[in-house]
Design brief:
Helix content is about 25%, strand content about 20%. It contains 19 helices and 31 strands. A 6-stranded mixed beta sheet has the order 1-2-3-4-6-9. Helix 6 links the parallel strand 3 and strand 4. Helix 14 packs across helix 18 and helix 15 crosses helix 18. It is globular, with a radius of gyration of 26 Å. Bound molecules: beta-D-glucopyranose.
Length: about 750
């Protein structure tokens, strides 16, 4: 069966340890200009190997951990604000490795580069809602170009964790609750970043589903479920994005720290998937020397936060005592070099930088992503789109006069003009609550000739009073999330539910615009005619919201995760007590491991859990309204030359142009079967009356169960059901396909 490309070429740890150690003394150095690693015709593997042979032990170890905080690292990092700086090796013409956070744009740690105007992209969750891998590539390329223009060559990006816990603090940094959607979007965004000839990570490997107690929570899950869900998302992202590096997560998986899990790093990533790049820990996420190194961890990141410089002197001692083979040290360095060659970092460093950055074009990409990922959840009586002739509009709440909300933590981008409010304390540093300078109020004002006024919403009675006199009220409600801390429940925080009820009672034409880091519950839903989910929409967010409200853009976003009706529907209704989970990286871990039982839902994450339990959520995965209507017809599924694909026809049967996102779900009924899984989707833009036939490739792993005994995905001989629809759990068309047993690979 045709499979997505797999990489080969990486040596397994077992194989590597059986090889004789590489020479410990550098060989005679060829003169400049004749160095084999400067020959771009040679493979990255050969080039890396030839450098390793020239490196001294001190040079090798200088690349495996960084013991001092970046500003103190000698010599000082050429670019302030980096998350890590590994020194150059001028003797061998090797550049420094300058690592920076860039999940949602190039960050500016501690505002170390005053005035830096890097583009703040929308949240990854919004990118997931676009269901558009090509847009993810464009957004990634923005990050890549801006990073390179600032001298960074390793980007800490590519969040590919599945959203298992919708209250998770970093839900906004992840793409979705589905492995296929997550893998495709994260993979393309990594490919986009690396198109600028720099390295991107994927992170946080693996099952970093909650933030509370992230250094002491163990994500417990049987191997088959891991492989079919969380690991599959990473596997697809790595196949597509070919990231130069993978960052491990802080948490434990089945009782073992991810950064020292031989199962996750050596077996799954390096052996089964043939991953040839390097594996770095998260900052302050390394816990041992030999165990971690022999499990496959290649770099101890943020070592100053760890209790010991595990990959410094202790590792040298372990090598000297024969507890870690020299060949493993060479492998660690070779992997770093290989990625620096494969992505073009080293070659690019030897040429003048011709990279050009067009800030206006980049802001337009951010806005386009937002316009494609904002989801229209409700539109009773076709209240939207609004007429630009509307006379009196009242905008309320969420600092909509100043900007749009951003998530907090290491991914936060703070361009000049951002509104910066006190946030929370993250790893001993104050995290700000940032609003990107893209004011929805100003954007709405520039759309209409009538009067547009603003109330901040803190005085509920006053806001309701003013709402009475408006033709339309646009009420912004927000939910701020940040790294290191989960949301305390799914309700909108503070007095916002009361505000919505009071304003809606005063004016029945009240539109709620949500800026949230994940799903929220909506006890007020019946009281308002229209709801728009704008997530954290980034640098062009205000304009994107206005474009949709006034119908210049058809709402094309679809939910990348289920909105539960209430928390009782979740696999774990009660959250772990945050008070018990206060430890953070860089601090002594207090108390023991807290075990989180993900076997409750197993591989049935999100919408699959709702299907398995027969639960009706508030809004389903894949759902989103348009200003036009679509019809699906003629579904067929076929297996030709070993490859599976589905085809169907999409027609715009409404009166406006718009974009539909038809989805195919595959299921196997019966006790040994599985509930519907997303197997393919397409984005189809159609004029009124226009029809298009689309063909969707289907990854065989989505029809498979992971067979632990065989060590591979296996498709059972059976009659598979394929449903086409526009949201999970609502079938519009159905067909079946009988398949023979198939081995679908590792
Ligand atoms: C985060 C990573 C980030 C790193 C470096 C950690 O706290 O978990 O996502 O890349 O810090 O800033």
């Amino acid at each position: 069966m045709d499979r997505l490309n797999r990489r080969t070429g990486a040596m397994s740890l077992t194989l590597l340890l059986s090889l004789s150690a590489a020479p410990t003394q550098p060989q005679a150095e060829p003169s400049h200009g004749q160095r084999p690693w400067q020959n771009p015709e040679l493979s990255p593997d050969l080039r890396a190997e030839s450098v390793v042979r020239q490196m001294t032990e001190d040079e090798k170890f200088s690349w495996l951990s960084q013991l001092l905080p970046v500003p103190d690292a000698p010599p000082a990092s050429p670019q302030p604000g980096a998350a890590a700086y590994y020194q150059p090796i001028p003797r061998l013409d090797l550049p420094a490795r300058l690592e920076n956070d860039a999940g949602l744009g190039v960050t500016n740690r501690g505002n170390a580069r005053p005035g830096d105007d890097a583009t703040a992209l929308p949240s990854s969750l919004l990118l997931g809602a676009t269901f558009d891998p090509a847009l993810a590539h464009q957004a990634g390329a923005v990050v890549g170009r801006e990073a390179r223009a600032r001298g960074f060559n390793v980007q800490l990006a590519g969040g590919a964790n599945l959203i298992r816990e919708p209250r998770g603090g970093r839900t906004f940094e992840y793409v979705s609750e589905d492995p296929l959607l997550t893998g495709l979007i994260a993979g393309q965004s990594v490919a986009g970043i690396q198109s600028a000839r720099i390295v991107s990570t994927v992170k946080h490997f693996a099952v970093n589903a909650q933030e509370n107690g992230r250094v002491m929570a163990s994500s417990n899950l049987a191997e088959a479920a891991l492989r079919e869900a969380d690991l599959l998302a990473f596997e697809i992202a790595i196949e597509i994005g070919r990231p130069g590096s993978v960052m491990t997560s802080y948490n434990l998986v089945n009782g073992e720290y991810a950064s020292e899990s031989g199962f996750l790093i050596d077996r799954v990533l390096k052996q089964d998937w043939g991953y040839a790049g390097w594996v770095m820990s998260d900052w302050g996420g390394t816990h041992s020397t030999e165990k971690a190194v022999l499990a496959g961890l290649d770099v101890q990141s943020g070592a100053m936060l760890d209790p010991a410089p595990y990959f410094g002197r202790p590792l040298r001692e372990a090598v000297a005592a024969g507890r870690v083979p020299q060949a493993r040290i060479d492998d660690m360095v070779r992997r770093i070099l290989r990625s620096l060659f494969a992505t073009g970092v080293i070659d690019a460093s030897q040429r003048p930088d011709t990279n050009t950055v067009d800030p206006a074009a980049h802001r337009l990409v951010a806005r386009t992503v937002a316009e494609n990922g904002i989801v229209l959840l409700k539109n009773a009586g076709d209240l939207l789109p609004l007429s630009t002739d509307t006379r009196r509009i009242l905008v309320i709440g969420a600092h909509a006069d100043r900007g749009v909300l951003s998530g907090g933590g290491s991914s936060s981008v703070t361009p000049p003009g951002s509104l910066r409010l006190p946030g929370t304390n993250l790893m001993g540093f104050e995290t700000e609550k940032v609003y990107h300078p893209s004011s929805p109020l100003n954007a709405i004002r520039s759309d209409v000739s009538g009067e547009v006024s603003y109330a901040d919403g803190t005085d509920i009675a006053a806001a309701a009073q003013r709402a009475r006199d408006a033709d339309v009220v646009i009420l912004f409600a927000e939910e701020w999330r940040t790294e290191a801390l989960d949301a305390a429940g799914l309700a909108l925080p503070g007095h916002q539910e009361t505000l919505i009820e009071a304003v809606a009672a005063a004016n029945p034409r009240t539109i709620v615009v949500l800026e949230t880091g994940g799903p929220v519950t909506m006890p007020w839903l019946d009281k308002v005619p229209a709801v728009l989910e704008a997530w954290y929409p980034g640098a062009g967010g205000g304009e994107a919201i206005a474009s949709i409200l006034f119908g210049r853009v058809d709402p094309a976003g679809r939910l990348p995760l289920t909105f539960p009706a209430d928390e009782g529907q979740l696999p774990r209704p009660t959250q772990s007590d945050p008070a018990l989970l206060a430890s953070s990286p860089g601090r002594p871990i207090e108390g023991g491991t807290v075990h989180i039982p993900y076997d409750v839902e197993g591989s049935d994450v999100g919408y699959r859990w709702f299907a398995r339990q027969g639960l009706d959520p508030l809004f389903r995965f894949g759902f989103g309204l348009s200003y036009t209507r679509f019809a699906l017809s003629d579904l067929s599924v076929e297996r030709r030359d070993g490859a599976l694909s589905a085809s169907l026809t999409v027609t715009n049967v409404g009166k406006r142009p718009g974009t539909d996102t038809p989805q195919i779900y595959v299921s196997l009924p019966g006790p040994a079967g599985f509930v519907p899984r997303l197997a393919g989707f397409a984005r189809v833009r159609l004029e009124p009356g226009e029809s298009r036939r689309v063909s969707l490739p289907i990854d065989p792993r989505l029809l498979a169960r992971y067979d632990v005994a065989r060590g591979s995905f296996h498709i059972a001989a059976a009659d598979y059901v394929f449903d086409a629809g526009e949201e999970a759990g609502k079938t519009i068309l159905r067909t079946r396909l009988q398949l023979d047993a198939i081995d679908a690979g590792k």
